[in-house]
UniProtKB/TrEMBL annotation:
GO molecular-function term, one example from the UniProt record: insulin receptor binding
Localization of this protein: Cytoplasm
Domain annotation Ras-associating: ranges: 173-253
Protein's name according to its UniProt entry: Growth factor receptor bound protein 10
GO biological process: insulin receptor signaling pathway; negative regulation of insulin receptor signaling pathway; negative regulation of Wnt signaling pathway
Domain PH span(s) in chain numbering: 293-402
One Gene Ontology term, aspect cellular component: cytoplasm
CDD domains, per the entry: PH_APBB1IP, RA_GRB10, SH2_Grb10
Amino acid sequence: MNNDINSSVESLNSACNMQSDTDTAPLLEDGQHASNQGAASSSRGQPQASPRQKMQRSQPVHILRRLQEEDQQLRTASLPAIPNPFPELTGAAPGSPPSVAPSSLPPPPSQPPAKHFPPGFQLSKLTRPGLWTKTTARFSKKQPKNQCPTDTVNPVARMPTSQMEKLRLRKDVKVFSEDGTSKVVEILTDMTARDLCQLLVYKSHCVDDNSWTLVEHHPQLGLERCLEDHEIVVQVESTMPSESKFLFRKNYAKYEFFKNPVNFFPDQMVNWCQQSNGGQAQLLQNFLNTSSCPEIQGFLQVKEVGRKSWKKLYVCLRRSGLYYSTKGTSKEPRHLQLLADLEESSIFYLIAGKKQYNAPNEHGMCIKPNKAKTEMKELRLLCAEDEQIRTCWMTAFRLLKYGMLLYQNYRIPQRKGLPPPFNAPMRSVSENSLVAMDFSGQIGRVIDNPAEAQSAALEEGHAWRKRSTRMNILSSQSPLHPSTLNAVIHRTQHWFHGRISREESHRIIKQQGLVDGLFLLRDSQSNPKAFVLTLCHHQKIKNFQILPCEDDGQTFFTLDDGNTKFSDLIQLVDFYQLNKGVLPCKLKHHCIRVAL
């Protein structure tokens, strides 16, 4: 009986071996197995199979599959495509592709759905050959478990879509500077305006004092606005027409209302739903607190839709939107009509409203919907009486729309996740970092008395004059005369803007923020030998002429009719950064143009 069982097992084993040879052999075009033509092919000069190949052909199907899976695991994604290791199973020469057309392959059973990647994604070109097994007289590619049915083996393809977008999806953004130069920057799709500004500051090697901003400029509409630091650049660009562009510019007044809100919101223009003590902290808290109901009210010139005429209306700004009254100054609900919505709109400056839109003056603003194609009838054009009133309306619009986001941008100017060069921005010269010092004794001391500080400043000015005179005497034999050098050395400074007009200098001051101490120097148009200091104080722009004067055969520059003299304009600017002298305030910020 045992002999019968052993013989039955041996016969079953031999039958399995014979069946495996038949099963694992591929079908040819005539429907016969390749093993049936082995003798014929060998007689035609085909190479004989190696002992290892013979041993693999003699193994059962499940052993072959296990060997194939082990070979599959040993392969790495960094290796190039490897040809089929069992060419004799397909009847083809080593290194040649299988003879079965891919179109004849049936879809693998129960395989996961194919992943769809966003446009613009490029998967890795590293390929991994599949394993071929027989399925009912046809061949199909065997997909490893938990893998997308593709020939790629990129680990990023197995990541969630959100992570893959952060790693893969990038976009080129073109940014222009004030002098017309531009730079194309590759950014991530989730990069904010503040991050892009810091990147441009780093690439341009300029000083970062947290006052740089990205400007959305529409030349055909005559509109522009500064992007908030938290806004996503790619999202804003998707709503811009093709002719619009981004500008890289300074804006010192971006968060000035957090430092001195009383100057931005006059009492007659602010109405509170509850009693307020009028302090600066309470004023900001009422604007930032969503439960409070601040309201900005006053008269504005509003352009009528479809007409060139403007009409004076009583307007009020609330959290729910901008309204105008149809009956005088009444604010009853039945007399208020919605003029614009805050959530789906942004407020812009009118660049040349008087020329382009026939505005009453140049203190215009526009509320534009946030969509790609905006028609002229959808623009809400407004005009204030002066610059202070326009600043009040635009600041209130930003506060009511963004609220605490603006305060967070003001308190935390640096974003996380930036490269190390961005983590330590340098500070520009400011009023808080400059104090009067006395070094006449053995150790220096800070001068607290204002009268003593002014006397020390005058003495320092005379010392500059003496040093300049001594330098001229010692260097009189030099081919480059010191007086010639003093006359041109200021042209290397960022605050000097050359031969520009009064209107152009005022435009630059307005663009970079109407804050106290913002200044620039330029050539005088009326006197070729003189210069002009353009200074902003209390949101008003003033001009001071710098005249040359001669003393003992040397040329000096003065602002106060010769009482304080300076050998060059650099000394003059340094002096008035420490002392206001005859100026209404000290020089604090200078207008700058950076070439990208």
